[in-house]
Amino acid sequence: MALIPAQGASARQITVTTSSGNKTTTVTITEPGKYKLGELFKEADTVAVVKVVSGDTENYERTVYKAQVVKSFKGAKAGEVVYFGPYIGTRLGWEYILFLRNVSKPMSPKRISSAGYGTIPYALESNQGYGSMESSYVCAFDGKEIAQHCDYGVRVYTDYVILPKSTRTFPPVGEDAPFGCRWVRKTVFISLLDKLAGARK
Q1: Which three-class secondary structure state does DSSP give residue 114?
Q2: Other CB atoms closer than 10 Å to residue 15's CB: what's the count?
Q3: Domain match, 152 and 173 both
Q4: How far is 145 from 130, CA to CA, in rounded Å?
Q5: Looking at the structure, do residues 109 and 58 belong to the same domain, yes or no?
Q6: Is residue 13 located within the same domain as residue 98?
Q7: Do 40 and 10 sit in the same domain of this protein?
Q8: Helix (H, G, I), strand (E, B) or coil at 199
Q9: Per-residue model confidence as pLDDT tens for the chain (201 residues)
Q10: What is the tally of structural domains in the chain?
Q11: Please, which residues have CB within 8 angstroms of residue 38's CB and are 6 or more apart in sequence?
């Protein structure tokens, strides 16, 4: 067996080759990388707040979600429809902040039928799905009053998405958090994306 690390600063791949008799099998394992928020923004084709309106796990080779852009920071316009995937678990009707990478070829249904969305442009959630961040109302923040403790937040996988040091997370970095997920107030997170979008102009 040979373990070969992939080349490149942000690559997180290991190729495993096994030999048994005359048969050689090679499998590439891809893991998420650690990206600064600005790097994730730069590498994405589309960065937007979206509302997920439907999903399809039946008619395509990959899971497809359909979402409407609520606010765009890069690569899309408000009101535009985007199709993305392929990771299951995205909640229909919920808002997400997405960092997407476009696939070069449109995706067609497995068979011609009236089901599905037809042939569509398709985008992948960046960094093995960690570029998809749930946005919802939560009671996870600091403050003595309920109005301070509860707010709209963005769930960030801070083990893989590195925020500016001045960004407050709940719980703070350094304390245990389920699956490395921490909440950031939505207004704060949106302001970070606005600054990154402004820097591109």
Answers
A1: coil
A2: 14
A3: yes
A4: 32
A5: yes
A6: no
A7: no
A8: helix
A9: 333 333 333 444 556 666 666 777 776 666 688 999 999 999 999 999 999 999 999 999 999 999 999 999 999 999 999 999 999 999 999 999 999 999 999 999 988 766 789 999 999 999 999 999 999 999 999 988 888 899 999 999 999 999 999 999 999 988 989 888 999 999 999 999 999 999 876
A10: 2
A11: 196
How far apart (Å, rounded) are the C-alpha atoms in residues 123 and 67?
A: 12
Global pTM value: 0.84
Angstrom distance (rounded) from CA 13 to CA 110: 29
Is residue 65 within 8 Å of residue 58, measured between CB atoms? no
Q: CB neighbours (10 Å) of residue 8? A: 9
Which of helix, strand or coil describes residue 107? strand
Which residue type is seen at 104? S
Same domain, 56 and 67: yes
Q: In sequence order, what are the residues at sequence separation of 6 or more whose Cβ sits closer than 8 angstroms to the Cβ of residue 107? A: 60, 61, 62, 64, 83, 119, 120, 121, 122
Scanning the structure block, which residue is given the tokens 């245990």?
176
Classified as helix, coil or strand, 193 is helix
The verdict on 122 and 147 lying in the same domain is yes
The structure tokens listed for 65 are 């979600």
Q: Tell me the C-alpha distance between 20 and 18, whole Å.
A: 7
**CA-based angle 94:97:99, to the nearest 5?**
135
Which range marks the domain in which residue 22 is found? 2-31
Distance CA 88, CA 55 (A): 9
